[in-house]
Amino acid sequence: MQENTYYVHDMACGGCLNSVTQSLLAIDGVKDVQANLQTKAVTIQFTNQPVNLDILASQVADAGYSLTRE
User: Fold this and answer.
1) Domain tally for the chain?
2) Where along the sequence do coiled-coil regions lie (predicted)?
């Protein structure tokens, strides 16, 4: 199992955090998501190989946010 950390700099509240978390959990291959509102970090645990960043970013964008590596 692998995990990577990304950032969603436009998360501003608990509702934002929940939206980002739920949007990522809906992706096949994502096992768990831990988001930190203070650091804007989102750690994603994958079932096997990491999901492509473009897929993750697109899903988060559909929820109204931007996901980046830094």
Assistant:
1) 1
2) none
Establish if 33 belongs to a structural domain: yes
Residue 26 forms part of a structural domain:
yes
How much is the average pLDDT of 47-70? 96
Strand duo 41-46 + 2-7: pairing: antiparallel
Q: In the structure, what pLDDT confidence band is assigned to residue 3 with cuts at 50, 70 and 90?
A: very high
Nearest to residue 30, comparing CAs of 39, 18, 41, 43? 43
Domain-embedded: residue 67: no
Pairwise CA distance, residues 13 & 4, whole Å: 22
- What's 20's domain CATH number? 3.30.70.100
Identify the helix (H) or strand (E) that includes residue 25. helix 14-25
Mean pLDDT of 44-68: 97
